[in-house]
Amino acid sequence: MTEVSTVNKEGQVTIPREIREKFEIREGSVLGFETREGEIVMRSEKSGKQFVEEWCSIVRTKLKGPMDLKKLKEEFYEQVEEDVLL
Q: Domains of the chain, with CATH numbers?
């Protein structure tokens, strides 16, 4: 898929709707940029919240039982904060 967009005077670019929908990019999505061999590569990055929600979904499926996702997320975030701050 190839799309074209124009850079405005603030240096901003609108990502075409078809691409946003295909990669589930919406307001607040985190995007990564990389340059390689004369090209700019943009990729959709998962936010910490998206990562935790997907991880919890996988764990819930594998456990096949009830679990307190809110508590699990809170404990995960606390551990991440401790790891980052140390």
A: 1-45 (2.10.260.10), 48-85 (no CATH)
Contact 33, 41 (CB under 8 A): yes
- Model pTM? 0.51
Radius of gyration of the chain (CA): 18
CA atoms of 36 and 46, how far apart (whole Å): 21
SS3 assignment, position 48? helix
Phi/psi-derived region of residue 37, left when phi > 0, alpha when psi is between -120 and 50, beta in every other case = left
Reading the block at residue 30, the tokens are 């985190």
Burial environment of residue 42 by CB neighbours within 10 A (0 to 12, 13 to 18, 19 or more)? middle
Q: What is the pLDDT of residues 24-52, one digit of tens each?
A: 888 888 888 999 999 998 887 776 777 77
- The torsion angles phi and psi of 45, rounded to 5 degrees, stand at -105, 145
